[in-house]
DNA sequence: AATGCACCCAACCGCGCATCG
DNA sequence: CCGATGCGCGGTTGGGTGCAT
């Protein structure tokens, strides 16, 4: 038994919206609002459309202050950072970009950003010369498996400038981190490998150090956090050095610091990383701070 | 100029979740 | 508590368009 259809499929119009339909819908909502019931709305105004279709049309095109196309480099950075951190939660990503819709961002990611990012990633990995291992099937949500396409143009990403005063929007690393915390992230100075525990064994992390979170990150998060499409199977939890930018579903990654040293997620986890180099990278501290997220089942 | 191909994007589909009676 | 209903979301599709051959 399947779910009942939301409308009578035989009696609703599908396909592109006409200007007349747009005008009807916009005019009604402008003067009456949605009435809290999208399903009933098209009948009220005499549209042969599914309520869900009306809702989509309104949210993506007709409502005020919608922007289309022309994504700025800053928006690219935010989308990439968030996608790498929280995955394909387009509505959350869209909420941080005023005037953008989740559908628009999703399309933009699928058609352009993903390819650019993959191109960048491939170049970095091939220059490193490390043999890659095909990922197991069904491994994760981020990148397709299979033969690599021809390298697309590289994405030119600039670091997001740190701004301590920006609170309302999501355009700096501190606010990115705050959002990730809100989504269930935790930050810890403990190294789970040293403690002999897996991140899943840490139900409670120390209190969040807000001051530390407000420190600028090291370099461009995209450079630090390029998820690998054909590394080992997806680990359960992201563990990133120092930066504090973490995600529930960030997979194995390649981290490159300003000095050109690279660390692979599996190297970190397996303990084969050169901690001296890592400590130099992160500022000569005695211990490598780990950032762990546990908002992940 | 014609054809094929790749890309883009608006729209649809189905599922999970929240709410309500 | 439970089933019905509606909403919101992410994945996918298919038509339009531009470019390469």
Give the secondary structure arrangement, pairings included.
Layout lengths: L18 H14 L8 H4 L6 H12 L10 H14 L3 H6 L6 H27 L44 H10 L9 H4 L14 H4 L7 H4 L1 E2 L11 E3 L11 E4 L5 E3 H6 L4 H8 L7 E3 L5
The structure holds a DNA duplex (21 and 21 nucleotides).
Can you give a write-up of this model?
The chain has 297 residues and is mainly alpha-helical. Among the domains are: 13-62, Arc Repressor Mutant, subunit A (Orthogonal Bundle); 118-131 and 169-292, no CATH class. It has 12 helices and 5 strands. The chain has helices at 19-32, 41-44, 51-62, 73-86, 90-95, 102-128, 173-182, 192-195, 210-213, 221-224, 265-270, 275-282, and strands at residues 226-227, 239-241, 253-256, 262-264, 290-292. Strands 1-3-4 form a 3-stranded antiparallel β-sheet. Strand 3 (253-256) and strand 4 (262-264) form a beta hairpin. The longest helix has 27 residues, at 102-128. The radius of gyration is 22 Å and the shape is elongated. The model is unreliable at 121-297 (pLDDT under 50). It binds a DNA duplex (21 and 21 nucleotides) through residues 2-4, 6, 14-17, 36-39, 50-53, 55-57, 59-61, 88-91, 102-104, 106-108, 110-112.
Quick synopsis:
Residues 118-158 are annotated as: Disordered. Helices cover 38% and strands 5% of the residues.
Keywords:
297 residues, mainly alpha, Arc Repressor Mutant, subunit A, two-stranded antiparallel ribbon, 5 strands, 5% strand, disordered C terminus, DNA-binding
């Amino acid at each position: 038994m399947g779910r009942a259809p939301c409308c009578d499929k035989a009696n609703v119009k599908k396909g592109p919206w006409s200007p007349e339909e747009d005008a009807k819908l916009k005019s009604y909502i402008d003067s009456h609002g949605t009435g809290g019931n999208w399903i009933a709305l098209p009948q009220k105004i005499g549209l042969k459309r599914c309520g869900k279709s009306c809702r989509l049309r309104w949210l993506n095109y007709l409502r005020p202050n919608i922007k289309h196309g022309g994504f700025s480099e800053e928006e690219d950075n935010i989308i990439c950072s968030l996608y790498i951190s929280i995955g394909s939660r387009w509505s959350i990503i869209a909420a941080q970009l005023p005037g953008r819709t989740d559908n628009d961002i999703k399309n933009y990611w699928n058609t352009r950003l993903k390819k650019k990012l993959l191109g960048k990633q491939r170049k970095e990995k091939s220059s490193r010369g490390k043999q890659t291992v095909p990922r197991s099937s069904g491994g994760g949500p981020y990148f397709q498996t299979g033969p690599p396409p021809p390298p697309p143009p590289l994405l030119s990403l600039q670091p997001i400038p740190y701004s301590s005063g920006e609170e309302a929007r999501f355009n700096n690393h501190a606010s990115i981190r705050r959002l990730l915390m809100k989504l269930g992230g935790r930050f810890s100075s403990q190294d789970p490998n040293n403690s002999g525990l897996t991140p899943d064994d840490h139900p409670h992390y120390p209190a969040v150090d807000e001051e530390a979170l407000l420190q600028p990150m090291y370099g461009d998060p995209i450079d630090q956090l390029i998820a690998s499409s054909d590394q080992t199977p997806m680990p359960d939890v992201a563990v990133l050095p120092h930066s504090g930018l973490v995600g529930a579903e960030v997979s194995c990654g390649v981290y490159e610091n300003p000095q050109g040293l690279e660390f692979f997620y599996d190297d970190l986890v397996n303990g084969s990383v050169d901690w001296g180099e890592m400590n130099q990278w992160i500022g000569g501290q005695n211990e490598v701070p780990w950032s762990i997220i546990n908002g992940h089942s």
